[in-house]
Structure formats: C-alpha cells, structure tokens
Amino acid sequence: MREIQAVEIQKAIEQLIYEASYVISPDIAKAVDEGIEKETNPTSRNVLEQIAENYKIASCERVAICQDTGMAVVFIDIGQDVHIAGGNLEDAINEGVRVAYRDGYLRKSVVGEPLFDRVNTKDNTPAVIHTRIVPGEQIHILVTPKGFGSENMSRIKMFPPAAGVEGVKQFIIEAVKEAGPNPCPPVIVGVGIGGTFEIAAQTAKRMTARAVGSHNADPRYAALEEELLTEINKLGVGPAGIGGYTTALAVNIDFRPTHIASLPCAVNMCCHCARHAETTI
Known about the structure:
With 281 residues, the protein is of the alpha/beta class. It has helices spanning 6-22, 26-38, 42-61, 89-103, 148-151, 164-179, 197-207, 219-232, and strands at residues 2-5, 71-79, 82-85, 128-134, 139-146, 155-159, 187-194, 248-256, 263-270, 277-280.
C-alpha cells in the first residue's frame, strides 16, 4: 500500500491547470501549422496564422490562451493500492482548482445553481471529477479546462442498433455542420459510441484530449475517424467559421460495450485549443 498526501494531489491539479491554460500541446500546434500549409483561402490561412501566433504569445507571456478559461474537468485514475492521506480527494482537487484560477488570473465561470439564481461561485469550483479505480499504486490525473462555446455544441443520440454505421456517420457530420462557427473551429471532435447515455458522453469528452494525429487501435474505428475528418473538412465551415478547408483538426473515437437494444453516440466538441495536461503521481 502506497500513501499519497492529499496536498500532493492539490499541487498537481494547480500546476496542470496552469500548463493547460497557457501552453498548447505540440500535436495541436503541429496540426494548425499543417492547416496553414493546406489552406488555399487567404483569409482562412490568415486566421490560422493568428491562432498559431496566439499560442506563442500565451506560452511566452504565461497568459490564458482563451478568455473562456473553462470549467475544470478532471479525469483521475487511482491505483487500488493507493491510500490518500491528510485530506479528502474531492476537497484536494477543488482546492487546486481554486488556487490556480485565483493565482493564475483565470476567469471564474462557474455558477453554483444553474436555473434560478445562477450566482458565480467566484473561484471556478466545483470541478467536474471522473474517478476510476485501476490496478497499481499510482494516480494518473488528466485535467481539461472545458470552454462552453464548444461544450454547448455537443450532442448525444440514442440510436436503435439498425441505424448502423451510416446513421452514426451522418449524426456526427451534421453535429459539426450545425455547430458552424460557434465552437471556435478548427475543432477536435470527440466521439463516444456505445455504453449508456452517460458513458457515451464521458467517453466523448475524454476523446477531446487524445493526441491529434493518433488513431483508435481498432482499424475499423481508425478508418472511420479518417473518413469523418475528410467529410467534415469538406463542409466548408473553415477556421472561425469564415470558410475554408480546416474545419476540424481531428475526429477521435472510442467505444464501449452496450446493450443489445441500443447504439448510443455522443459528440463532444472542443475548440482548436483543446486545453489539457496530465501527470502521474
């Protein structure tokens, strides 16, 4: 049994939020640079060039990549041989979020009650926490501060199994088409297929943080990712919705076992920033 102090988790969350908020991941920067080379529309190319410049400024000056600094979403995998000491896990995560958004001068965007009062919690807590118990004696943490221009464009549909591949494909393409400029394209399209209503959505969200340029290990899903990316980039939405080829940087799909009577499919949109950072304690 390995003991990990709650304060260590708090500090890790804090540092991951800084990293995700200020520094774009190399795979996304590379994809945007490739988009610049491919774009034939001068205005669209200029938008991508401005995006790339913004990444550099944010990293050099340690300022937020985007003014919507998101709602903190935390995926935490806890080894079954770990004992968390010195505090509560959820409290540690939220304290890390609280400190990072305060000391990092990141916009506080969370309201405590969603329908009637909508009063800002003033520290961007609580975080959204997804926990899994896994083998081992380590803790893996993935933090993704999720902006809601893209989150609001996400979709889920509970298909009958007869909808098949074509039904799923059309749903994903239409979701991107209907979203238009709202999710700040070029987008990363996270897709979860199977599971239940909530598992499909959670899988899709995790897929927005998968490296751009990587593919599902199952060749059928990998081929579907490539096909959908090509079709989405034919829509003509383009960077910032002004037209052009680069509507999406990636379509990342994962799947889960599901019930014989259903075919859930969730699409979680993410803007070109796709802010995320991870570490293992």
